[in-house]
Amino acid sequence: MIKYIILIFVILNIILNSPCNSKENFEAFRGWNVVKMNMTVEEVKKALKEASISFEEKMFHKTGNIYLTLDKKGWKGTIYFDEKNRVNQILFQSPYIKSEKEVKKIRDSFIAQYGSPHETKEIPLSDDGRRDIYYIWKNKFIMLELTVTYYNNEKEWILWECYNPVK
Fold it and tell me: Is the residue at 4 inside a domain?
């Protein structure tokens, strides 16, 4: 009897921790929160207002292109638009993080939400003072990249969460 109970718990654990649900959800993924790739500036502003997400509208002086900035639980966010005023990138930058445990918790939350990354790569940099690891999820619509950057001299991390349309 105890063997069967243990077997049931093992099977439940495998099912509940299986990334298939996350992977299936990611296949339908189109953007961040209420902002989807290819939305117009006006559509994004309306969606953010309806979701009660505060933002600021800004403009690049050189090109006149509009972009929106916002805050996501301490992460600085920017929504960029292409020349047709449609979303072409959503970028969030974390504050400096001193705890490796906190960095792993954030990375693990992405894996729990989206499944295992389709690609993980460490890019060697000419600067020995930093190390970058990229975790990349892709579907036919969007690429989500979580970049984990460690600064050796400061002993701290910055993370970037970046959404781009698949080209």
Answer: no
Which band of pLDDT confidence, cut at 50, 70 and 90, is reported for residue 10? very low
Burial of 28 (C-beta count, 10 Å sphere; 0-12/13-18/19+): exposed
d(CA 93, CA 90): 10
- How many structural domains comprise the chain? 1
Could you tell me the two tokens for 41? 């500036």
The span from the CA of 100 to the CA of 155, in Å, is 10
Residue among 148, 144, 166 at smallest CA distance from 158: 148
Distance CA 80, CA 162 (A): 11
Global pTM reads 0.82
pLDDT band at residue 153 under the 50/70/90 scheme: confident
2, part of any domain: no
Tens of pLDDT, residue by residue over 117-131, are: 999 999 867 677 888
DSSP string, 116-127: S-SEEEEE--S-
What would you report as the CA-atom Rg of the chain, rounded to the nearest whole angstrom?
Answer: 19
CB contact at 8 A, 87 and 81? yes
